[in-house]
Specification:
about 350 residues, alpha/beta, Metallo-beta-lactamase, Chain A, Rossmann fold, about 25% strand, seven-stranded mixed β-sheet, six-stranded mixed β-sheet, 2 domains, single chain, 7 helices
Length: about 350
């Protein structure tokens, strides 16, 4: 590897002296998106796409930050950089790097499916691609998202008819907003855990419209939630916070619900297969369409996926990173405060 190197601090472009999503403090960091395994505190200076600014401020505080439009080129020590939509969450970006006529793309986390709220994935052409492989096995084959939203709304409606609170876990950045935009609010009221409500507020204050939501607070009574749906981060499922709801029907929205036994492991009544990452088919499609011959998986099933790519004729080897991707038990940024 020459344009991008793997170091103990993160992915590094030596000629430009910049890091991409570093996990240890560095002088200059380019950030693909706001999940905390990619956007860590402690860097001297940050650069990101404009629609990620409010999210990074919300999570990292008063950092020194430069923002760019999608597709806007900027040059550092003769190396050209630009951010391009990754389709993962609001403000997520792939980073295109052009050095001495060679083009590399660092995808960050991404998905090809248009979720109706995140900026839609842009297919880039490159010589080398550093790609996530969170769900890099054939077993991960996503259900059509409209079918999933219908299932969620039907489940909520049935619970509301029975006077049962509907409790659904979703990441506070990304999946929560995606689900919020597709809930049938004629069924009842949408409540959000403080972590999700605060993230929603930051996104709305940045100029992005979201459907109505209410923050769970201490003044609410248990009866207020009888016909409601409550969106919560996964970590709240096993906390004292959930005890304020009387015998809720619990659901989990995650790509991991594609695995047998995952719903039972979380003690949930319902599991919905919904991910903000590529499934197996989408990963392979993105790689094929990129035109790249060198592929470097970064997290997830890196060894298996890299071996598959090698058998397909690619020059591939995995890269060790501190990126987490989607997990079943928690989200990259643990937020449990109300």
């Amino acid at each position: 590897m020459n344009v991008i190197e793997s170091t103990d601090r993160g992915l590094y472009c030596a000629k430009a002296d910049v890091y991409i999503d570093p996990w240890k403090p560095v002088p200059r960091a380019l950030i693909t998106h706001g999940h905390s395994d990619h956007a860590r505190p402690g860097h001297d200076a940050y650069a990101c796409v404009k629609s990620s600014k409010a999210i990074l401020r919300h999570r990292l505080g008063p950092i020194k930050m430069t923002t760019y439009n999608y597709g806007e080129t900027f040059t550092i020590n003769g190396v050209k950089f630009s951010f391009h939509p990754a389709g993962h969450v609001i403000g997520s970006a792939q980073i295109r790097i052009e050095q001495d006529g060679e083009v590399w793309v660092v995808t960050g986390d991404y998905k090809l499916e248009d979720d109706g709220i995140s900026e839609t994935y842009e297919q880039l052409q490159c010589h080398a691609m550093i790609t996530e492989s969170t769900f890099g096995l054939p077993v991960y084959d996503w259900t059509d998202q409209e079918e999933v939203y219908n299932d969620i709304n039907n489940w909520w409606s049935e619970n509301a008819d029975d006077g049962t609170t509907t409790f659904l876990t979703a990441y506070s950045l990304g999946k929560a907003q995606r689900i919020l935009q597709h809930l049938d609010q004629s069924i009842g009221t949408v409540y959000c855990h403080g972590a999700i409500a605060n993230m929603n507020d930051a996104i709305v204050n940045s100029g992005i419209d979201l459907n109505p939501y209410h923050k769970v607070n201490a003044d609410n009574k248990a009866d207020d939630y009888k016909t409601a749906i409550v969106l919560s981060p996964p970590s709240a499922l096993n906390s004292a916070w959930i005890k304020r709801f009387k015998n809720p029907s619990v659901g989990v929205a995650s790509g991991w619900m594609a695995l047998r036994g995952a719903r039972r492991r979380r003690g949930a009544d319902r599991g919905f297969i919904l991910s903000d990452h590529c499934d197996w088919k989408s990963l392979n499609q993105a790689i094929t369409d990129s035109g790249a011959t060198r592929i470097y998986p970064t997290h997830g099933y890196t060894q298996i996926f890299s071996q598959w790519l090698t058998e397909k004729g690619y020059d591939s080897q995995p890269i060790e990173t501190a990126f987490i991707g989607e997990t079943l038990d928690a989200e990259p940024q643990e937020e449990t405060k109300v």
